Structure to design on (210 residues):
């Protein structure tokens, strides 16, 4: 477990260290070290822990399964712990570019049309005449995840953790550019959706864009 960010300026020098290394340095049991540290930081320390790596063969079997829909969502319950918003970029980098487990066209289908079908949004997920023009323009070779950061855009000034990335040029929703690179244009052309259709004004709604 790594010390990601501290509140107490006197503890800044320990950011980036693991609790195991700090415990060894201070000659303490790791549990005692952890408790002493968080108390000294007024219980405001952010820690980071990495999941155990998945064997590539297992990852490929899961990613390429016809029964697997890529995605990560728990309704925002872990907005301070796991941003989750970067899974599409990670999928393109790891599954397609680095390990070549599937071609780009299949990945696009997995990340767009397949989840739209699974959610019952039949007029979303692919580009065709009469379809909403939701398009992302990017350079696969330039895709790169950045370090996580805090965004203070919740009610009452509260924060959530996000991960930005390089390599994206434009994000287009309903034919309108909403992002140029990382810069938000301020346009909000999205509509509320109902099961089976993206037609606005339907009586039963789900969010179309987050």
């Amino acid at each position: 477990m790594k010390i990601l960010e501290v509140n107490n300026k006197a503890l800044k020098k320990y950011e980036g260290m693991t609790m195991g290394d700090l415990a060894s340095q201070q000659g303490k049991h790791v549990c005692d070290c952890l408790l002493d540290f968080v108390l000294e930081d007024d219980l405001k320390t952010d820690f980071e822990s990495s999941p155990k790596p998945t064997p590539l063969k297992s990852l490929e079997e899961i990613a390429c399964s016809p029964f697997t829909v890529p995605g990560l969502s728990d309704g925002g319950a872990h907005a301070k712990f796991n941003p989750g918003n970067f899974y599409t970029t990670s999928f393109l980098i790891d599954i397609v570019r680095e390990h070549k487990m599937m071609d780009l066209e299949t990945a696009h289908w997995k990340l767009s049309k397949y989840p739209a079908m699974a959610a019952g949004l039949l007029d979303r997920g692919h580009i065709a005449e009469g379809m909403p023009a939701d398009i992302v323009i990017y350079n696969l070779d330039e895709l790169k995840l950045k370090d996580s950061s805090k965004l203070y855009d919740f009610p009452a000034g509260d924060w959530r953790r996000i991960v930005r990335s390089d390599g994206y040029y434009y994000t287009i929703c309903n034919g309108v550019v909403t992002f140029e690179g990382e810069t938000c244009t301020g346009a909000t052309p999205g509509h509320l959706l109902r099961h089976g259709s993206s037609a606005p004004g339907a009586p039963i709604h789900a969010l179309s864009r987050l």
